[in-house]
Design a protein that fits this description.
Layout lengths: L1 H25 L1 H15 L6 H5 L2 H13 L5 E5 L4 E3 L5 E3 L4 E5 H4 L40 H18 E5 L7 E4 L1 E4 L5 E5 L3
Antiparallel strand pairs: 1-4, 2-3, 5-8, 6-7
Bound molecules: protoporphyrin IX containing FE (HEM).
Length: 198
């Protein structure tokens, strides 16, 4: 349990922080919106857990990051009983079949996400038609037990990074991804980081 918590607990949050900063530097108006919200709420002091609830744009930016940079693109479940799947599959799969749930596909399915192109980062995005189409932490009894902890860690660190430094993208190319237990960048993501004036 300790080793799985360490394995599941380190790369996941570190990569989410990385992908959030990447998404914000690539979307300067979202970056400004989130930073202004943080500056006006906190006036430079370090954030507390209670502050995170009062930063709705930060939450939207992190949720868009979870949606577009899904760390666990697939989950799997073994069917406990023979189960009928309606159209388009229209088939009954036997008990014990392993079913893959493609979270990253659901996260950008045009049938689920109204408004702007689901492949784009949009801070004003509405929730999906079916709530099950957004599952960065999984489902049900086997869902990630650390969602609250992970969201708090990511939120607190991103706030501090935005309070203390200016971030700009130094590279506008496509960042290729690779899956190694979780989805990470294939190469470097280049950004400029400067201390913010006091
Ligand atoms: C942004 C951070 C994280 C994301 C996106 C994430 C996502 C996930 C997902 C998708 C699953 C599989 C859920 C399913 O199959 O329904 C999972 C399972 C798990 N996660 Fe996380 N996780 C994160 C952080 C953490 C942290 C910080 C810890 C521990 C400190 C942790 C511990 C675990 C464990 C132990 C499981 C296995 C649960 C089980 O099989 O019953 N995760 N996580």
């Amino acid at each position: 349990m300790i080793s799985s918590a360490l394995l599941a607990g380190y790369h996941t949050t570190a990569l989410t922080i990385m992908w959030t900063m990447h998404a914000l530097t690539r979307h300067p108006s979202a970056y400004e919106t989130v930073r202004e919200e943080i500056d006006s709420r906190l006036e430079g002091r370090p954030p507390t857990l209670a502050d995170l609830d009062a930063l709705p744009y930060l939450k939207k930016a992190i949720n868009e990051t979870f949606r577009l940079y899904t760390l666990a693109p697939f989950m799997s479940r073994e069917l406990p009983t023979a189960t009928h799947f309606p159209a388009p599959l229209s088939a009954t799969l036997p008990k014990g079949t392993t079913v893959l749930i493609p979270a990253s596909t659901l996260h950008t399915a045009a049938s689920q996400w109204r408004g702007t192109d689901p492949d784009t980062f949009d801070m004003n995005r509405e929730p999906p038609s079916d709530p099950l189409a957004f599952a960065p932490f999984g489902y049900g009894a086997r869902a990630c037990p650390a969602e609250r902890f992970a969201r708090a860690e990511v939120g607190l660190v991103v706030v501090r990074l935005l309070q203390r430094f200016e971030w700009t993208a130094d590279d506008v190319g496509v960042v290729e991804r690779v899956e190694r237990f979780v989805v990470m960048a294939k190469g470097d993501i280049k950004v400029r980081v400067m201390p913010r004036a006091a």
